[in-house]
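Pasting as-is:
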Amino acid sequence: MREILLINISGDDKPGVTQAVSEALMDHRCDILDISQSVIHDNLNLGLLARIPLGHQLEKIKDEIFSSLSLIDMRVRFQLIADEDYSNWVDQQGKPRHIVTLLSRKVTAEHIARVTAVTVEHGLNIDKITRLSGRMSLDRMESSSRSCVEFSLRGVPLDLAVLRSSLLEMSSEMDVDMAYQEENIFRRNRRLVVFDMDSTLIDAEVIDELAKEIGAGEQVAEITAAAMRGELDFKESFSRRLRFLEGLNESVLEKVAERLQLTEGAEELMATLRLLGYKTAILSGGFDYFACQIQKRLGIDYVYANQLEIVDGKVTGNITGEVVDGARKAELLRNIAAGERVSLEQVIAVGDGANDLPMLSIAGLGIAFRAKPLVKATAKQSISKVGLDGILYLMGISDRDVSRWE
């Protein structure tokens, strides 16, 4: 009778293991129904699910496989699979798939235990667990390290809202980032990435820095913080802050620009996006003078920001043109996507403030980066524990992938 044989092979990783087992099966005209291989610290685990044709002796096949693998010091375990169990396994392939991404400076056993416990509670099966971050030296400083593990899950969550809430709560309790995404055709087919600038691409709020130059830094910073938390209307707060800048010398803009620092991981992220052919944009409620300089440093394709009005070398306290607020950012995102002929599902939007929520909500992947609590709780995804290049992990891109292109 026809039989289905599961073959599990383990041992030190070396060339010729897959060849040895597949040639033994080939001699008996076996079909391979499934195959998977992983290597952890030079230790190989290989699994094959083979259908043994009618008229072939199972024990003879097992003996030949065992003999072939013994010659190269590999261990092997066999298990017969019942037809009913195989049919149930086949039926699983139509179920939805999900991705949970765990990001932190380091991954602990508690992190893995808590994530897997949540998946069990919600009736999901783990298909695969993959480390996306590179190998970490034992003496590497934790403050600059990063670790990422991706869980590929299958099934229908008992309650998706509760699942998301559980992951968010876990993220807060364990001081890690947790991202949940549906696995679909768009996840690895994003084409456009748009960014807020202040406190996203750079680690400062430019308007606060300008206000410091005229002794109004604290007052303006308080208004900025309230606006970013969503406590004040952006246009109203922007107008109030601009009035503090009236009379500022134009030369101060260059002085402030020189001290602005890029956010951790910004250069690495942009280099990878350019290499992969992504289009990028800055959609900023800040000022175009600074956004254009960041554009040059990072090789960004589009820039939309507010233009300070300057008369006779002095800032007037006004801007020229339409204010780039939250609604305008969302509109610009739509316009750029349409011009590039990409769907909104293929867009990634990144920001930290309440005025970024409109564009985060319409993008296929909206990411709150080191964001205010309201934004973090509202956005689809958030990253707080690693740099901007952590976004690559949410795209399914590993450090190993990046190193191959460098």
